[in-house]
Amino acid sequence: MNALHEKGTSGQRASIWRRSMEIPGCPAAPADTACDVCIIGAGISGLSIAYTLVQEGLSVVVIDDGAIGSGETGRTSAHLASAVDDHYHVLESLHGAASARLVADSHVAAIDRIESIVARENIRCGFERVDGFLFAAPDEDPGFLDKEMAAAARAGLNPQRVSRAPIPGFDTGPAIRFPSQAQFHPLLYLAHMAGAILSKGGRIYTGHASEVNGGGNSNVTLKGGQIIRCGSIVVATNVPVNDVLTLQTKLAPYRTYVITAPVPAGSLPKALLWDTADPYHYVRVAANADNAPGQDLLVVGGEDHRTGQASDFEARYGQLEMWMRARYPEAGPIHSQWSGQVIETVDGIAYIGRNPGDEKNVYVVTGDSGNGLTHGTIAGILIPDLILGRNNPWEKIYHPGRLTLKAVPEFVSQNIQAASRYFDWLKGHETADEKFIVPGYGAVIRHGLKHVATYRDERGSLHRMSAVCPHLKCIVTWNGSEKTWDCPCHGSRFDCQGLVLNGPANECLATLDPVSQIEANAPKD
User: pTM score, two decimals?
Assistant: First the structure.
């Protein structure tokens, strides 16, 4: 759980960042401790906030139930972009030109902040400035680029029209060039940032936050019974685990897919690239994480879908590979592949600030909208300002309690889509009998009125859990690629044996009695 929670369980595919390094675990939290600020989550958001606060002299405790960066920060494609995924002409239509400019300012500042921390702490994480390029998909109206270029210019990004994106063997047609984007190795960055936090007296512990209490006697209670007493609390867990419904109705979880393939070193220009397809594709060239001589790695992502609402996982990787090979014939065999979780908001801007409906000293960071690394770094600037009582020009646009009237149709559509999955309670399932489940796979089996998430491990033993997500009682689905149970309503995810990996759920799938007892207790026809 708490900060993402994809811990390399059986069958999961580690990203190239996680494969290339091991980050040591942190000690367990003591029985009772106190601090100025307790941060739940040790990804880019949590550590960026902690880093700023310890520089200000505050005492900080970071808590996570996995290794540093063990969640979505370690599964990103590692673009650092001020050219946001939801596009400036769309943000202008929803929020106005002034707000779109503030969004641009904040992402530019986030990249600058990462660059300054890299220099100050002497972090060797491959940070480098590169240009970004947006080009039209084959069936996209080229007028899309005209609208985006005009809006990005009004936002102050200095975009430039060019004849094509820098893909040597493929003519993309006209593109927009965004200068001064960047790329880096996210886990190397976090590992050094964690060291800087510890050197300033910050504390980073392992533990699962089971209860969050704001107000005058603020504290975070861990699953093991430990209590962290604090003045402020920040929930930086990708999706808030302390919020049952308020923010969840404004968030939509998506799975996104990434493949990498070797290319001859120096054969492709270093750049960030995106097309305008829906779902769109994103590309960059990275140093080979395995230190293979004479090779770079081409990183290609896309093929997104709502979490828990697709089953053609291998086909998604195959479609990505086809797209890549049509544009990059020099790419070698697939080196690695993985998927990650993207949290979209109804109006295209993240939620960073005081948690609506909670005490004023409880803060959240969520809604990365495909720009999680810069949004997490923005949180490292904005939330410390709020805690310290400083004015920040971005407070209003990122306020989690905002209501964007022009985004109401999207709000309604997303929630209808989530609510429709409650009909799964009435359905049968593709697999009717657990004897058809092969080792290493799972399926939801119906026993009377009960829906049982059944996993057969590699030794042939069955593990049976309730298929009911503990968050808001949707029926989970089996993800055969990641070997997880995914909730199609709000995106909670559990490992093959029911351990919670991603919020908003904060509990595991309930272990069930042996199937004979399930059948005995089921209503008779």
Answer: 0.90
